[in-house]
From TrEMBL:
This is Biopolymer transport protein ExbD. Belongs to the ExbD/TolR family. Pfam families: ExbD (PF02472). One of its GO terms (molecular function) is transmembrane transporter activity. Its main location: membrane. It comes from Portibacter lacus. PANTHER family: BIOPOLYMER TRANSPORT PROTEIN EXBD-RELATED, EXBD MEMBRANE COMPONENT OF PMF-DRIVEN MACROMOLECULE IMPORT SYSTEM. Keywords: Cell membrane, Membrane, Protein transport, Transmembrane, Transmembrane helix, Transport. It is found in: Cell membrane. It comes from the Bacteria.
Amino acid sequence: MGLRKKSKVSAEFNMSSLTDIIFLLLIFFMLTSSLVVPNALNLKLPGRTSTKTQITTEPFKVTVKKNGDFYLNGKRISALNLEGAVAKLKRSRRGGEVSMTISPDPMTSNEFVVQVMDLAFRYGVTAVLL
């Protein structure tokens, strides 16, 4: 008897379901990426104005050294005490315009400068980076 079993294995692969999944993932990531809002600092860039502004109070000066030391008006202060001092200065001006100048050393890490800028942003202090 010549009974033979015909069992040929097909080497073809159906790609249509795989492309559907890829397009669904692409649409999902495109939609979710538009919902992500970048967390950035609101910086005021220098520009020209036709009116002159009057500075009523002297801005206080924050100096950042390259090793991460902070100086408030020439006196050394820690990062935690700097936050308390900024809060105290903000309260002492009683809602008036409070401003500070930030002057880092040329080799200072950006981390320390951004730390001071974030502190100014949280307390509503106008900060100018020198």
